[in-house]
Specification:
By secondary structure, this protein is an alpha+beta fold. It is built from eleven helices and 13 strands. The chain has helices at 5-11, 13-29, 45-53, 58-64, 70-79, 84-94, 130-143, 147-155, 203-206, 261-278, 332-345; strands at 2-3, 39-42, 101-107, 123-127, 164-170, 176-181, 192-199, 213-218, 223-227, 233-237, 244-248, 282-289, 292-300. The strands form three sheets. It has a six-stranded antiparallel beta sheet. The protein has a five-stranded antiparallel beta sheet with strand order 1-2-5-3-4. Strands 10-11 form a two-stranded antiparallel ribbon. A hairpin with a 4-residue loop joins strand 8 (213-218) and strand 9 (223-227). Helix 1 packs across helix 2 and helix 5 packs antiparallel against helix 7.
Length: 346
């Protein structure tokens, strides 16, 4: 049930889920070019086997999914103890994987062409003891039965039980973190990367808690544009206990760039190398600890707009309205309506 990165690569996504398989592909494809914090994964079969320990047969659980309060299902899953053999194996493995640890859900079917499960399942950072890790593993399994995760499965026509693997990974305390899209999801430009970044841990970026600088970088590392914002909040570790907390950013750093051009080039070229190895544009979570770049997750971008052509007319949406008449952003509908209204009134 407990798999190393090479074993996870052999086992495949159907056993270790999208997040773990993405990390395993990094280890297999770019073992020396990309730095990934050390990790192991609990195979998804353990999440299903755990239901028996929760006092529920799989068939009965499937029957319950449609008409039972998700809170009850989560309670069943979190209330049962983890299989003693798995717990002992994990405790033993943690002795050679010094903490603190990040415990991350890795859903089977995650990051597929049809469904991403982005933000649906939970992760737990700065678990400081093996007991913290075991509790976090059960919480990851239980998060698959949250109301929003179950609704997501129903909307995408997914039946049966969720199969959830769990990644246990060494924590990296990054001073700057963010997300890199190796193709621009705003313009569709395939040769531009769009990189968002904030002070502190990546959790603050991916959960939307932090304002982020946004950079567009050509694939050769040259900066194309930068939007620097007031970064008032950062997410950091909670001292002496598990978890993270939000703190104010020092006034001198709030409106300063959090990435130099050299750091941008390093992030962009590394992420493009990953996309080339995987054969598709990637959505990559990263962090900088000092000058060391760590990749925390890589998954395919499941939807991109058509690439804009320089020869096509530029479409501009602005707010140049007569404010008392038409508030907000001016769209084609605004013009159409105003034209008819003014023709009638005046």
């Amino acid at each position: 049930m407990l798999l190393s990165p090479p074993e996870a690569f052999i086992a495949g996504e159907s056993r270790v889920g999208g997040k773990a398989y993405g990390l395993a592909r990094l280890a297999e494809s770019l073992p020396t070019e990309v730095e990934v914090p050390a990790w192991v994964v609990i195979g998804a079969e353990a999440s299903v086997g755990h239901l028996g320990r929760a006092g529920q047969l799989e068939a009965a659980f499937v029957e319950m999914l449609g008409d039972t309060d998700p809170g009850v299902l989560r309670g069943f899953v979190f209330g049962a103890e983890i299989d003693p053999e798995l717990a002992a194996a994990l405790r033993s493995r943690l002795e050679s994987l010094p903490g603190p640890w990040a415990v991350r859900s890795s859903m089977v079917g995650e990051d597929s062409a049809k469904s991403s499960f982005a933000g649906q399942l939970e992760s737990f950072l700065y678990c400081r003891t093996p007991s913290d890790v075991l509790d976090a593993v059960r919480k990851c399994w239980a998060s698959a039965y949250s109301a929003h995760a179950m609704a997501y499965r129903q909307r995408h026509g997914l039946s049966g039980l969720p199969h959830v693997a769990v990644v246990v990974q060494q924590m990296v305390t990054g001073q700057v973190s963010g997300v890199a899209f190796t193709a621009d999801p705003t313009t569709g430009h395939r040769q531009h990367a769009r990189i968002t970044a904030a002070w502190g841990l990546a959790e603050g970026v991916v959960n939307g808690a932090c304002n982020t600088d946004e950079y567009v970088v050509a694939h050769d590392g040259d900066e194309v544009e930068a939007n620097i914002v007031d970064k008032d909040i950062q997410v950091v570790e909670t001292p002496d206990q598990s978890g993270t907390t939000e703190v104010e950013v020092d006034a001198s750093k709030r409106e300063a760039r959090c990435l130099t051009t050299a750091q941008l080039k390093s992030i962009a070229t590394t992420c493009v190398r990953i996309a080339d190895a995987f054969g598709a544009p990637q959505d990559i979570e990263w962090t900088l600890e000092g000058d060391q770049l760590f990749v925390l997750q890589s998954r395919p971008i499941t939807a991109l707009p058509e690439e804009q052509s320089d020869e096509e007319p530029v479409v501009v949406f602005d707010n140049s309205n007569i404010q008392e008449s038409y508030c907000g952003v001016t769209t084609p509908l605004t013009f159409s309506f105003a034209q008819g209204a003014y023709a009638s009134v005046y």
